[in-house]
Amino acid sequence: MSLIVYQHPLSSYCHKVLIGLYENDTPFERRMVDLSSERGRAEFRAVWPAGKMPVLRDERRDVTLPETSIILEHLDRHYPGPTRLIPGDADRALQVRLWDRIFDLHIHMHMQKIVGDLIRPEGERDPHGVADAMDRMRTGYDLVERQLGSKTWITGEEFTMADCSAAPALFYAAMAVPFEDRPRLTAYHDRLLARPTYARVLEEARPFFVYYPLKERLPRRFRDS
Questions:
Q1: Would the pTM count as exceeding 0.70?
Q2: I need a surface site. Which of 7, 75, 149, 221 has the fewest CB within 10 A?
Q3: What are the chain's domains?
């Protein structure tokens, strides 16, 4: 098979790429990455020395690509389908790239700081860093609340790469820092959860949620599995 995705079902950034693949029914082979074992880490670093998931290997084009946004742009350009992840119009494409970055850098990254701190040894935790991350996430929430207005998706009425970015960022972020009084953001999150492609990703992740540090805050349907 031409496309190989190195991933793990619990990884939020892997979710972002899987949504894009499922949106267009793009055939691919998945390779589960086991970072808990020395052998697994060594095998993955042979593919991508930085050791971060996901990574796309495109055998047909002989390229190996890290970084979720780059992977999705590659898929949209070389393996297009009915869902255009990047609009053809340059100005609309710029808005999609902007909001993709906002979700990754203003929400997703800070959420990972909070979750990562939970698995540190007790004496090595960073309460000030966590508090700062929470504040920055709330600022990100406010940006999204203002942007949405009456839009269905983050940049308009079409589902794009920016929404692929939003879905896992908000799913995991909501467990770390609740949305509180942000009705547009809450409704948007609900629409993302109901999107068949992300529902599929979450169903695949269900057996692994037991290992998530904030598993007690998962939506009930995932805690009862």
A1: yes
A2: 149
A3: 90-195 (1.20.1050.10)
